[in-house]
Specification:
With 139 residues, the protein is of the alpha/beta class. It has 2 domains: 56 residues, 2,3-Dihydroxybiphenyl 1,2-Dioxygenase, domain 1 (Roll), CATH 3.10.180.10; 69 residues, 2,3-Dihydroxybiphenyl 1,2-Dioxygenase, domain 1. Helix content is 19%, strand content 32%. The chain is built from 3 helices and 8 strands, in the order βαββββαβββα. The strands form 2 sheets. A 4-stranded mixed beta sheet has the order 1-4-3-2, with helices on one face. It has a 4-stranded mixed beta sheet with strand order 5-8-7-6. It is globular, with a radius of gyration of 17 Å. The termini are far apart. The relative contact order is 0.18. The mean pLDDT is 90.
Length: 139
């Protein structure tokens, strides 16, 4: 029998400007800084959390990694309500897409952080939300 992998993944992302990154995640998205090294006011590494979601950021690239922030994909989050979260962030951060119902049946919106990382917030679409928003950005 295979061992369970666990119930969470914590992205650890290279950033070009830690102060700007913390301002975005803490002041605009409502995360809290919960860990840091070596000092809180100017960390080389930090952890931010919101509810059960944690993300690590670091400024010095470890051996054998890129020296500039890069990600070829999107980080997907599954909030309690896409609509409520979009309303909370409306006017604080620009939306890259949505909220809208995607062709694959999910209602979502996406943002881009100061380092170029794409974050998508998604949930299964209801019949009502599909009829109301299919392919039509709302924010």
């Amino acid at each position: 029998m295979a061992v369970k992998l666990g119930s969470r993944v914590v992205p650890s992302l290279l950033v070009s400007d830690m102060r700007r990154t913390l301002e975005f995640y803490v002041e605009k998205l409502g995360f809290t800084q919960t860990g840091f090294y070596p000092i809180e006011s100017d960390p080389e590494w930090t952890e931010v959390r919101r509810d059960d979601v944690a993300i690590h950021f670091y400024v010095d690239a470890p051996h054998s990694t890129r020296y500039a922030p890069a990600c070829s994909g999107t980080l997907f989050f599954y909030p309690e309500s896409v609509e409520a979260l979009a309303a909370e962030w409306h006017g604080k951060v620009p939306f890259v897409w949505g909220p809208e119902v995607m062709d694959y049946g999910m209602r979502e919106f996406g943002i881009r952080d100061p380092n170029g990382y794409y974050l998508a917030f998604t949930e299964p679409a209801t019949e009502q939300s599909q009829a109301r928003t299919r392919g039509t950005p709302q924010a």
